[in-house]
Amino acid sequence: MSWTLTADRIAELARGAAVLGTGGGGDPYIGSLLAAQALAEHGPVTVVSLDEVPDDALVLTVAMMGAPTVMVEKLPSLEEVIAPVHALGTYLGRPVTHVACAEIGGVNSTIPVAAAAALRLPLVDADGMGRAFPELQMVLPTLYGVTASPLAFGDEKGNVGVLNTADNHWTERIARVACVEMGCSIMISGFPMSGAVAREALVPGSLKHCLAIGSGITAARAAKTDAVAATVELLGGREFFSGKVVDVERGTTAGFARGRARIEGAESSLDLAFQNEHLIARSGDEVFVTTPDLIIVLDAESGEPITTEGLRYGQRVRVIAAPSDPRWHSAEALAMVGPGYFGYDLPSHRFDGTVERTLEGVTA
Fold this sequence. Notes:
Blueprint: E1 3-5, H1 10-20, H2 28-42, E2 45-48, E3 59-66, H3 68-71, H4 78-92, E4 98-101, H5 111-119, E5 123-127, H6 140-143, E6 151-154, E7 160-163, H7 168-181, E8 185-193, H8 195-201, E9 203-204, H9 206-222, H10 227-235, E10 238-253, E11 256-264, E12 269-275, E13 277-283, E14 286-290, E15 294-299, E16 316-322, H11 331-337, E17 356-357, E18 362-363
């Protein structure tokens, strides 16, 4: 069933998306401001389920590409958001009928809201990941043979281009170079899909899931109950560490925010490694959880999600793990988003402690 997304729900949507963003996906506050502006200017957005998208629809994803740390100071405009969609529709020679989220994490859950409002198009209640990942090809549609290109991109200066590439990995490589040259953050639109393909390749119900998480945190605070525990229950995950942030190393390189953080607990410390999103959580030789499952840092008292660029010395935090979409644990998917891809000589560790043999993609 379709439903209407109004400005008064954006804060809860952004909060839930920041949780699913696993530390990345861009500053949710900036995205919520952009979405609220678009909804105020152009009216509410109609959100449709995947079942309601016609087979012959033209669905395009809309997203920000680049380092989340840069976007804090390099704010996008509505014109910048919709320019790639117009360019790609013109290139394809047919009208765009629906907008979708490439990822549901952080700002990339709310930028498509802004695009849908400004373009007066329906927004699909789905996304390409069920979380956030740092590279463009790291979406479930890649596993279904959906090509990222033609991919349109644009910046705040009015530069707009369309890429045609050999495969999705090449789209990432070439677009990332353009992104760095254009200031380390750009708006993109791509992965053109029919409604039939979108139903198969996307994660359904992502926006409703974000709203449930965001409103759950709000409700727990109002009831003076444990907001972190409420989030763990909604995600079907587990809390595995709590303590104080004692060290953060962070830098923007090659269009990514890369770094590490250390959290000191009562009896041990936890090290987090991230590339936009949290990738590995471990204490010494003990690995708690790795990509592709979700590693989420929350404020210990309020349950507010903390992004990788928001991590600061002295914060009291609790760290939780949650399951990713089951399709991320196939052998092909693990080769694309597992620890090995990011240079870690580790098998995938699931949110519940289960260890997978990355190459075979089966449970050890």
